[in-house]
Amino acid sequence: MKISVIGAGNVGASTAYALAMRGVCDELAMVDIFGTTAQSKAMDIAQSVHVFNKNLKVLGGDDYALIANSDIVVMTAGSPRKPGQTREDLLLINAKVLDMAVKNIVKYAPNAFIVVVTNPLDVMVYLAYEFSGFAKNRIIGMAGELDSARLNYEISTLKGEFCSSSKVVGAHNDKMIISKNYLSTNLNDDELAHIDSQTRNGGAKFVNLVGTSAFYAPAAGAVKICEAIKNDTNELQSVSIVLDGFACGRLAKIGKNGVGEVSEFNLTDKENESLKASEVEIVQNIKFIKENL
Ligand code: APR
What we know:
Elements: E1 2-6, H1 10-22, E2 27-31, H2 37-51, E3 57-61, E4 72-75, H3 91-108, E5 113-116, H4 121-132, E6 139-142, H5 144-159, H6 189-200, H7 202-210, H8 216-231, E7 235-242, E8 247-255, E9 258-262, H9 269-292
Parallel strand pairs: 1-2, 1-4, 2-3, 4-5, 5-6
Antiparallel strand pairs: 6-7, 7-8, 8-9
The chain binds adenosine-5-diphosphoribose.
Adenosine-5-diphosphoribose is lined by residues 6-12, 31-34, 37, 76-78, 80-81, 90, 94, 97, 100-101, 117-119, 212-213, 215, 218.
């Protein structure tokens, strides 16, 4: 299996390294338009696999031809959030980067699945679908498992016991849904309010501490999707998928055909209202990009 990672910055390099360490592919390509970023990081990763006596071909450079015939392309190129910026502030900047990347995916890797990580996620997922003309099942947005990981981290920290099966669903923005129906641990109202605010602000908390957005946990989320496709696990994941005229987070089985069966949500009326409001916002942002790109 060949996996390519577009963008060799924090998220892209972390994704490529995690793919190499977990042995997800036997060929890995990294592309970044900035100088020797991809070339140098690819060389570093190529050397690190020798530490573990693994045979992995790793390529890197600024030429999109490197992604030729990839089975999966992970899209991480684009600007990260700076302190005070929302994911939506990145709309036009990252839509242009996505446009360029997708043109090259269509040209060099026309049969690939696209795993989108670039923010604002749900908008980028839908644009990747429209720009590529690929079938809906081949475009998968990574964020729900990241938000879920943050939720599970907060619950584990509060309760002092490891948990990893609670899910965050819906949009990858401040309107993400943290519902009692998708928690694997019983929480009282105060605990839930605390966990909710910590999880919802988990991304911004990192941005304020580091000055840029998170990378290891987002990379782990992207690798989880690649592994599910490669191993046809059909595991239910919280992912952003293409819906009717927009994309948003849903619980879907991910396997060798990409997005499979999608679960019906079990949400309260209030949660459904919040989901709808976030979807309206995503539709407006898609419209804004189409009018301004
Ligand atoms: N083609 C290829 N690479 C590009 C392009 C392009 N058209 N435009 C920008 N890049 C590269 C940059 O050169 C940079 O190395 O994308 C990389 C982005 O890396 P970082 O600035 O470190 O950003 P990162 O933290 O990795 O975040 C990337 O992922 O989680 C999201 O919100 C985040 O949208 C952001 C994206």
